[in-house]
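Morning!

This is the sequence you dropped in the shared folder:
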Amino acid sequence: MSIERFAPAAAMNPPPGGRWWLLFTLATLLVLLAYRGSLDHPFTRDDTAHFADRARWERPPDDWGAHFREEFWAKGGRSGLYRPLTALTIQAQLRAGDGLPPADVVPAPPAPRALRIGNLLLLAAAAASAGWLAARLGATRLCALLTTALVAWHPLLSEDALEIVSRSETQAALGVLLAAGVLVRDPAMSWSRAALAGLCFLFALGSKEGAFAAFPALLLLGRLALRPVMALTAALLVALVGRVEVFGDLVGFDPAQTAFVDNPLIAAPLATRLWTGLSVLGRQLLQLAWPERLSVDWSYAAITPLEPFGDAHAWLGAAAVVAALLALAVAWRRGAHGTLFGLLLALCSWFLVSNIARPVGTVMGERLFTLPAIGLLIAGAVALARASRFARAAGLFLLLPALLAFGWRTDRRVADWRDGLTLYSAAERVVPGSARVQATLAHLQFVRGRPELAADHATKAIELLPDYGKPHATLANCLAAQRRLGASLVHLWLAARATGADAELVLQLEAARAKVLQDERARLDFLRHGRGQVAAQPGSALHQALGEELARVERGGR
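The structure's back. C-alpha cells below.
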C-alpha cells in the first residue's frame, strides 16, 4: 500500500487558525484549577537532590552553556540523562524570579513560584498540543477538547507538574506533539515546514533523551517524504553530537550506576525482563483507566522480577501489546493515520522504558508513561471520531464523568506532595513492600525528631532488603540516640560496607569503632546485637562479612 494514503484529510481542510490558543486557554484554566494547591509546596524528592547543588543553578547567564556539556544530574558520573534544554528553562526561570530559597531552613520554605507556574504552563501547552494534534488527525472538536482536558487533568501525569525536574517529560512531549502537528498541517511539506518540524523535534530531544522513541511515528506521519526525513534525521544527529553515549546506549544510562533497589531487573535474563515489563505495562494501563493507586516509588520489592506466565498484570500487558499490534495492522490497511500515529507513538515510547530491550534506571515510573499515555489518548480520540454515532455517544457518556473523577483524583494527589513525609506516607499506603519507601520514611521521621518511628521504618526496609545501606545508617542514628552504642555500631558497619557507601560514612565508622570498642559494655552489645543480625540473614554476603568482623573483635582485635 502506498504511503500517500496517509496524507491526512485534516491537512487538506485545516481547522480554523488559533485553535491551539483556545485549547491552551482551556488547558491553563483546568491545570490551575487542579494544581492551585501546589504553588506553596517545598522541594521534595529529586528536586531536593538537584537544587542542593546551588552553584550550578546560580550560574551567570554567560555560563549557561555548561548545561550542554554535562549530565542532567551533573554529578560527574554517567547517568546518560542529557537534558540541556530542560536545565535551561529551569535556569531561566530562576534568573527571572528570586532565585533559590535559603538552604537548611526548617521547615523547608516553598519552592520558587516561577518554577511551579512554569511546570503548570508546560503541562497546559502539552495538553493543548495533544488536542490540537488530535483535531488535525481527524478527531471531532468535542473529542479534541476531551483529549486536552484528559491530559491536563489526568493524575497519572501529575508527577510531571508537581516535581520541577520532571518537567522534562512534558517539555519533551510538547516538542514531539508540535513536530507532529507541523507534519500534518502541510501535505506539500515545504522545506520551511520540514525544518520547523525538525526544530520542534530537536527541542524534544534536548528536553529528554528518550524523545527519540517518537522518531518512527513522526517519519510515518510525514509520509516518509524526503524533506521531513532529512529534517528529523538532522535533529537526531545534532542531539547525537551533544551526547553520543546517550543514543549509543539506547536509553542513555550506565547500568553499573543503577542499584538493585531501583531496578531489580538490572541483571535479570531477557525472559524475566520481558514478563516483568509486560506486568508493569498492565499496571500502568490500569492506572490510565483508574489512577487510584499512585506512588512516587515502585522500587524493590513493590515490583519483583517475574518468571514467565505467573502474573495477571503481565497477561493484561501482553494482551494490550497484541491488541495494539493488530490495531496497527488494521490502521495501516485502512489508512487511519491518526490511530496509526497514536499507537506507534505509545508502543515505541513504552518499549524504550520497558526494561525489555535493556534495563533502564527504574523498574517502573509513572512519569515514564507520559508519551505512551498521550499517544493512546490521541489514538482513542481519532478512533472515537470514526466510530458510529451510537459508539461515540456511549464513549462520551463514559468519558465525561471519568474526566470529573480524574480532576478530583488529581486534586487529592496534589495534597500528597505538600512535603516529603506526606508524599512517602501516601506511597507507603500503595507500596508498603518498597524498601526505599520505608528507608525514606525512616530518614524523614528521624529528621523530625521521631527516632522510634524512624527505627520501625528502617527495620522494615532492612527486612525487605538486608544489604540496603541507607536504612542501616538511619537505624544506627536511632540506636545512638537511645544510647545503644554497640547496636548502633553494628548498623553503621553494615551501612559503611554496603554497596554505594560514601567516604564520609566510612570515616564515621572508623571514628565510632575506635570509641565504642574501648568500652567493654558497648563492645559486648556490639557482639550480641551483631550475632543476632548475622543469624537473621544467613544468605547475605554483607552479613557474612559482619560475622567475620565479629570474630576478629571477639578475638581481641580492634
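Headline: Confidence is low (pLDDT under 50) at residues 1-18, 245-252.

More detail when I'm at my desk.
O.
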